[in-house]
Amino acid sequence: MVPRIVYIERRVLNGISREARRGFQKKEERCGKLIGYRYRDALVIAEASKKGLYSSGRCLPDSESAAELLRAYAERGLPAELIGDWHSHWFEDEPRPSGGDAIAARAISRRYEEYRGSYLMLLIARRKVAAYLYDPGRDLLVSSPLAPIWRAEKFEEEDVLVGSRHGGFWEMLDKTVTIVGLGSGGSMIAYLLAEAGVGSFKLVDPDILAPANVTRHFVGLGGVGAMKVDVVAKMIRDHNPYTSVERFPMKVDEEGLEEIMKGSDLALAMTDSHSSNLYVNDMAVKLGVPLVSAFVGPGSKYADVILVPSDGSRGCYRCVLSYTGISKLNMEAPPRLKAMYGQPVTGALHVNMMPAIFEAVKASLSLLRREDPKYSLLYIDVEKLIRGGLKPIVKVSVPRRIDCPICGGVSS
User: Fold this and answer.
1) What single string gives the DSSP state of each residue in 143-206?
2) CA neighbor of 310 nearest in space, from 267, 260, 275
3) Which of 374, 347, 378, 345 is nearest to 360 (CA)?
4) Within this chain, do residues 135 and 224 fall inside the same structural domain, yes or no?
5) Do residue 139 and residue 224 come from a single domain?
6) In degrees rounded to 5, what are phi and psi of residue 342?
7) CA atoms within 13 A on the CB side of 271
8) In the chain, which stretches have pLDDT less than 50?
9) Which of 126, 147, 181, 335 could form a disulfide with 270 if both were Cys (CB 3.0 to 4.6 A apart)?
10) For residue range 241-277, what is the model confidence (pLDDT) as tens digits?
């Protein structure tokens, strides 16, 4: 079932938030009516009245001020209508419907035909604003995604839902992905998986976004100085308002990573260190979580994607590194891969990273659909790919090594 979504014009959200803060200072509730457009699977808030009538310490929205707003919209030829109410909870940090809110929602929904199944209650607390829709079948106020937009419009029905033009978007909403490392590659993969419809993310990275990161990162200058987990979480929600994001500003080897990864459908090891990625690999194998990792090699000339299935049918990250000659992480590779693995890594341009990122996302989506791409290592000659040379991409299946301390399987 497609969850219903609520859009709100930023100007309106800022206006009622300011009015609510005035009430916070006086420990008073503030309230008003919400005006906008109603769709089958969405509500769009285009305007809000800010005038309330006070009775026994409660704020009751003034219907006349709302009627004036509706008349103004009608004069402009816009078919806006009343879609709900808003009020503040000055006494709490996180908005939660009270018993009185539920009673009011039930009474209004039963009294007015147009509100049945779509009565909207917007709650403003000290730290957060949340949208709730009354579900008459369950007799509950149900939380709904709230998405600020630049301007409220009367959209066409087929255009009002995020993801409505994206095949397969809704089938990913129940998937959980853990991404460890939110640099240029990790942030790009987070963005693409959010657009694909992934419904839950766990983000792990200890760093802040520095000015030097901006040219290769999906978050711009506006995020400089903030934690990467915070700015990437915001970017994810901007592109997929249905998703939930948990943030963990911590190092890979800090206690707790195993607990974070539990329940994930997929893990991505996107740090710039093989030793850190190995730690993620070990947790993933232990928990039975499939793993994908992407790595850009020296001078951005080569790149690879490493895939570890959850069923143990092929080798883990350690087995793949052993295959490439980096079992001791000393970057001493055999001649066949020395050009790729035997030199120090330098920064990569986004365009050079794209092939590995796209292949990592394709592999991730296949694993989330329980389809096996059937390779362990995919390595890319980026220069040959750009020039149109023959066989720029090679896929290798690496068996589990009998001496691997993590997956310990058959001998190669």
Assistant:
1) EE-EEEESS-----GGGSSTTTTSTTSGGGTT-EEEEE--SHHHHHHHHHHHHTT--EEEEE--
2) 267
3) 378
4) no
5) no
6) -95, 10
7) 22
8) 1, 327-346, 411-412
9) 181
10) 999 999 999 999 888 999 999 999 999 999 988 889 9
Residue 25: CATH number of its domain: 3.40.140.10
Q: What is the DSSP string of 45-64?
A: EEEE---EEEETTEEEE-HH
* Residues 6+ away with beta carbon under 8 Å from 152: 7, 8, 9, 12, 36, 37, 44, 45, 46, 47
- Which range of residues forms the domain containing residue 280? 170-396
Supply 201's token pair. Answer: 């993310």
The single-letter DSSP state of residue 100 is H
DSSP E strands, 240-374: 244-248, 266-269, 291-296, 302-308
Structure tokens at 1: 């079932």
**Residue ranges with strand state E in 274-328:** 291-296, 302-308
Task: Based on the fold, state whether residues 195 and 341 are members of the same structural domain.
Answer: yes
pTM: 0.85
Those residues with Cβ within 8 angstroms of residue 311's Cβ, 6 or more apart along the chain or in another chain: none
- Domain membership of residue 221 (yes or no) is yes
Which residues, in sequence order, are CB contacts of 119 under 8 Å at separation 6+? 84, 105, 108, 109, 112, 133, 134
